Amino acid sequence: MIEAVWLIPALPLAAFLVNGLFGRRWLRHATGWIASAAVGLSAVLAIGVFLEVLGGRERTTVTLYEWIGAGDFRVDVAALIDPLSTVMLLVVTVVSTLIFVYANGYMEHDAGFHRFFTWFPLFVFAMLILVMADNYLLMFVGWEGVGLCSYLLIGYWFDKPAPQQAANKAFWMNRIGDWGFTVGMITTFLVFGSVTFSDVFDRVGVATQANLTLISLAFFFAATGKSAQLPLYSWLPDAMEGPTPVSALIHAATMVTAGVYLVARSVPLFVGAGPSLEIVAVVGAITALFAATIALVQVDIKRVMAYSTVSQLGYMFLALGVGAPAAALFHLATHAFFKALLFLGSGSVMHGMQGEQDMRKMGGLRPKMPVTFWTMLIAGGSLAGLPPLAGFWSKDEIVGAAWNEGQTALWAIGILTGVLTAAYVTRALWLTFGGEPRDRHLFEHAHESPAVMTLPLMGLAVGVLTLGVVLGFPPDAGFIHTFLRPVVEVEGLAPREVEVVTLLALLAVSVAAAIVGILIVISMYARHRPDPAAVSRASGPVYRLLVNKYYVDELYDRRIAGALRALFGVLWAFDVHVVDGIANGLGRLSSLGGQGVRRLQTGIVGNYALTIVAGLIVIIVVYGGYAAGLWRR
Amino acid sequence: MNELLQTISPLFPELVVAVTASAVIVVDASLPRERASAALPVLTVVGLLVALVGGPAVSAQGTYFGGYVRVDEFAVFFRTVFLLLAIFATMVAPAYLDRKRVPAAEYYATVLFSTIGAMTIALSTDLITLFVGLELMTIPVYVLAGMQRHDRFSNEAALKYFLLGAFSSALLVYGFAWLFGLSGSTRYADIARTVASTGMSDAATIVALGLVTAGLGFKAAAVPFHQWTPDAYEGAPTPATAFMSVAPKAAAFAAILRVLVSGMGPLAADWATVFALLAAVTMSVGNVVALVQTNTKRMLAYSSIAHTGYVLAAVAATGAGAPAGAAVLFYVFAYGLMNLGAFACLLYLDIEGTRGATLDELDGFARREPLGALAFAVFLVSLTGIPPTIGFVAKFFVIQPVLDAGFTWLAVVLAFNAVLAAFYYLRVVVHMYMYEPEGALPPVVSPRLLSFSLALSAAAVVVLGILPDSLYAWALAAAGPILP
Q: What is the rounded average pLDDT of the residues B306-322?
């Protein structure tokens, strides 16, 4: 089974090719089912691979072919199948399958249906390459591939200006992060003489701490771009301009976790790298808190979820930073399910509300959309961290790891973020489903989505209900921990023994934080004590700061982009006048030369023959010159 | 009987092609016009496929016919190249031949005869075999150039090509005579022994070397022996241009490798620099003149001169050993695939006479013929040398041995030329994809067979650009026998 692992990405690739070539004219709506079936088959294969890894084949390299062999530089197109990549394979394929099915319903009336189902499986292909790669270079191929697909799918409605701008923004910010990836990769090659994971990690000892710090921080910088962390996070909320299945799959469940995967994969490089892990932890924690505060005041349901994603990814980096990669991966898996569910649920709401995303126009939708409501409630509870839902187990573990590592400040940030998380998700669900309908017209026409959309919701909900207990119980020693142990157990990252009393106390604090957050919001919105409007008035400047997202976009646009624009203006002038001048001059010079030679091309045979003789004489003279030693070689 | 079969079996592919060529003429005479025009391409392709598939099985490696012919890995490689090119040239032609009322049977038969000549060159161990092959290849190509008999330009092209070709053949044969005079033999091996002992010391060797360089340089269209190329290419019927821009050039390089690299290998240190200079001048002149062309057919003609320069650079580097030889073979293969394809893409436009499309006539071509435009774009990108195409890999393989042989300046010139070439190749892509089709444009015709063969070869250009390993390994093995 593992030997056939290349079939897993091959199937979505085949779907991409078939749909791309024949979608527009012949297949049309069949493209949706072709893509879904391909991804579904991949999921089945991934489960087969998982079972074999579970059966004891902990580390297999499946080489497809030698890709580059130039001197010392050798790179294979090869897959590394170990517990870490297997978890990613499973998450990507299973969540993709459900979202693909859902998208069949969601995109049904869109004119670009076939185009959507051309790019969508291509994304899955690129993502699978990213997680399967056994070296940094091949991973970079997947890394760029998902970036490209993300760009294409954010700008899917390319006839509207907002998606276009959002796509460009996402592309540029990701490019800035990718620069870190290339720096990290090149430095890795220079230091270790290889970019293959196993070689690099075996030779960690040869690198100095400065080497490792540079490499790990470069990779982490790349991760902040792809995984939307400070300072490169602001493209993700804008990326919500894409269709909702895209938001769910690419911008919540899979692509944005690539950064987490990159850091988890490279943990051996981070461990010996001085302050790198601390930096990861601090950036993660601050991003988590920062994004959660913004999510608190957003009125667009998808934007709430987008900031929530940024915040939850922050948790994952916090986990990596405090030396708990298993917890990060655990949270990655559970988050993929509950966040995908929240997005698909939001999509279902929008589907029933004629595309409305503004929560101020919703309200009271619970009886109209029972399935959507209940499934989103489960996902929301999971996000808030209520036991026994999936998110509770994974998030609690992260916060607990921070405490055990002695990082009390980070732990406190984690708990505070937990309160805010519970608050904003409760607020979003309340504004959508609770209270009185605020837009009569939309409310009257609101309806539950068709089965093709609600069934995936239920599938994901089952995952959210069970995954936490199945994978993560008992805490820190659950299935996922034993499964991942061979990969994530790195020297210098010893798991700490924690007393049961401490564990229970930490649990209690986490749950209490969640409940406090929920109760405050319910009190505000259901009983107007205190009234939300009054609160926002009273906290005027703070509220405005949050609504305007800390003015980060403005800052980036005015200061950084302004400075860059000035710089680029200079570069542009240089380009136009100097580089183009040279290029055009060269072209003009060449043209002149060309005209000259053209004149030699008289069309008269005799002249041509004469040229041949002249050439012959020159050649004989040159040869003769060599022979006579007139000029040296 | 058995003995006879055994004697001729090494030449199985050549014989099959010869029989096919004769059969084409006979079948054409005995069938009504419509049925013949459908049956002939099929017959031709089948014959070529039999030669291609049966060749390695029937024709065992070894030296035959009193030592005049040798079947080795080198010969097998070139046989394959020539057969593939002939198949390709056959498959793109039928619709054009019909439209222009070019006698189809003559076209296919001439292509086949020319192919036999090219294959003979690859088999040669002797100047006599080589010269017979060379003439057997070029004379049918003169005919091909003039096949559109009612067209003035086609006639002019054929006549010019013939006169200059005969002139260059004379120079070449004169050079062979000097070589024979020096060594008393026409065998490459004997010549190599002789020149190894004499070196460049006497004038006779210098004259012989100069004449051979000029004669073969003409066949490969190296500057300053290139001037026939644009006129002949432009005037010839387009499918014929596609064929004559690749097969004779590939054969010329087979001849250069046999005569210069194996026959005069001991003097390599002396002629290498001259070839490096020739290479630099050839690629630069080809590219610079291509830059100012507005007619794509003529532009491609000049660009094919530039590609000669790239291959000559690899020839100059044969001192660096097998990788340089492999680079020549690989480049010849890649060039054949992409250049024939690029010329064939012009067949989509129905234009009077033999003229090729101008840049303006290609405006919005992607809108009018998406598949053809895509294939054209792939070939042009590959000719430019952009990954992931075979053109990129081929240039990559050339640059490495050029550096190893110590011609750093040549590698720089080569890279510079690749940039220059991007200007005019990509300009065509821009016209096809970014301009609106406006005004009176020539009508588009899209014959299925043409689209099919172009799709196939464009796919090969990309696939071999990503997975060049096995082809390169083969080229490396094929380069073995000719390097000392």
A: 92
What residue in A sits closest to B275 (Cα-Cα)? A619
Region B297-305: mean pLDDT is 93
* pLDDT score for A233: 84
Give contacts of A595 with chain B, Cβ < 8 Å: 292
> Is the predicted pLDDT of residue A368 greater than 90, yes or no?
no
State the pLDDT at residue A94: 92
Q: Do B469 and A66 make contact, defined as CB atoms within 8 angstroms? A: yes
Task: Evaluate whether residue B84 is within a structural domain.
Answer: yes
∠ at Cα A296 (A324, A233), nearest 5°? Answer: 55
CB contact under 8 A, B211 and A627: no
Name which of A65, A623, A633 to mutate to probe chain B: the one with the most chain B Cβ atoms within 10 A of its Cβ.
Answer: A623
Q: Is A612 in contact with B214 (Cβ distance < 8 A)?
A: yes
Residue of B nearest to A598 (CA): B289
The sign of the torsion formed by the CA atoms of B286, B290, B296, B298 equals: negative
- Compare all CA atoms of chain A with the CA of B273 and give the residue at the minimum distance: A633
Q: Is residue B452 part of a domain?
A: yes
Q: Is B452 on the interface with A (CB under 8 A)?
A: no
Minimum distance, in Å, between the CA of residue A192 and any CA atom of chain B? 25
- Decide: A330 and A469 in contact? Cβ < 8 Å: no
Q: How far is CA A240 from the centre of its chain?
A: 13
Q: What is residue A615's predicted lDDT score, i.e. its pLDDT?
A: 87
**Residues of chain A with C-beta less than 8 angstroms from the C-beta of B266:** none
Q: Distance between CA atoms of A175 and A156, rounded to whole angstroms?
A: 19
Q: Is B291 on the interface with A (CB under 8 A)?
A: yes
| Residue B222 near residue B255 (C-beta atoms within 8 A) | no
Nearest CA-CA distance, residue B160 and chain A, Å: 6
* ipTM exceeds 0.90, yes or no: no
Task: Give which of B288, B400, B425 to mutate to test A binding, by max A Cβ within 10 Å.
Answer: B288
CA dist., res. A532 & res. B193, Å (int): 100
On whether the CB atoms of residues A181 and A220 are closer than 8 A, the answer is: no
The pLDDT, as a whole number, for residue A70 is: 65
- Answer for the pair A419, A499: CB distance below 8 angstroms, yes or no: no
Of A270, A246, A266, the closest CA to residue A256 belongs to A246
Residue A56 burial by CB count (10 A; 0-12/13-18/19+): exposed, middle or buried?
exposed
Residues in chain B: 484
Q: Provide the β-strand partners of residue B62.
A: B71
Q: Which member of A600, A603, A612 has the closest CB to residue B218? A: A612
Q: For A82, list phi and psi in degrees, rounded to 5.
A: -135, 175
Which residues of B are less than 8 Å from A594 in CB distance?
Answer: 288-292
**Total domains, chain B:** 1
- Residue A558 contacts by C-beta under 8 Å, 6 or more apart in sequence? none
A66, A607, A622 member nearest B274 (Cβ): A622
CB A433 within 8 Å of CB A511: no
Residue B134 domain-assigned (yes or no)? yes
> In terms of residue numbers, what domain contains B349?
15-482
Q: Give the residue from chain B lying closest to A619, CA to CA.
A: B210
Q: CA nearest A481: which of A309, A319, A273? A: A319
Chains A and B: how many Cβ contacts under 8 Å?
94
Within 10 angstroms of residue A507's Cβ, the number of other Cβ atoms is 17
Residue with the bigger pLDDT between A472 and B173: it is B173
**What is the helix (H) or strand (E) element at residue A70, kind and residue range?**
strand A60-70
User: Which of A597, A611, A627 lies closest to B288 in CB terms?
Assistant: A597
B9 lies in a domain?
no
Residue B217, CA distances (Å) to A427, B22, B75, B208, B250 in order: 81, 32, 21, 14, 12
Tell me what the pLDDT averaged over chain A comes to. Answer: 85
The pLDDT value recorded for residue A382 is 92
The whole model's pTM is what?
0.66
Q: Which residue has the higher pLDDT, B309 or A447?
A: B309
Most confident among A136-145, A386-395, B201-210 (mean pLDDT)? A136-145
